[in-house]
Design a protein that fits this description.
Layout lengths: L12 E7 L9 H13 L1 E13 L4 E2 L5 E2 L6 H8 L4 E9 L11 E8 L8
Parallel strand pairs: 1-2
Antiparallel strand pairs: 2-6, 3-4, 5-6
């Protein structure tokens, strides 16, 4: 079903997973932060979050196709966005797989966290 992050019902899910999305739909850091905030709010207090991000992924083009937007992120960026909104935040970095096509990323960041029982900043 088509939709946007604004369509997410806060507190609806026990678990939410987002893989290679937030950093790949915008070049605007505020929009990236808003998308991540909606992701956190989609789970009920105590709910679990799983996410993966391409580390330092720049905007890129495949062949002669359009330029795809990107918001380059690193571990510090993710901590800055998720630490105030979650508990139990854990970020693990996987080194770049040099056998994959080169798009400019430097690896993968895997994130797990929980939405606080008493939502921060709400």
């Amino acid at each position: 079903m088509p939709g946007t992050a604004d369509d997410l019902t806060p507190g609806r899910y026990d678990l939410a997973s987002m893989n290679f999305v937030a950093e790949s739909v915008t070049e605007d850091f505020d929009e990236f932060t808003a998308l991540c905030t909606a992701f956190v709010r989609a789970v009920h207090p105590g709910g679990r979050l799983l996410a993966s991000f391409m580390e330092q992924m720049p905007s890129y083009r495949i062949g002669t196709g359009p330029v795809w937007p990107a918001c380059p992120v690193d571990e510090a960026t993710l901590r800055g966005v998720f630490a105030p909104r979650t508990t139990g935040l854990r970020i693990v970095r996987l080194a770049k797989d040099r056998t994959l096509p080169e798009y400019g990323d430097t690896g993968v960041l895997l994130l797990t966290a929980e939405r606080p029982e008493v939502p921060a900043g709400e």
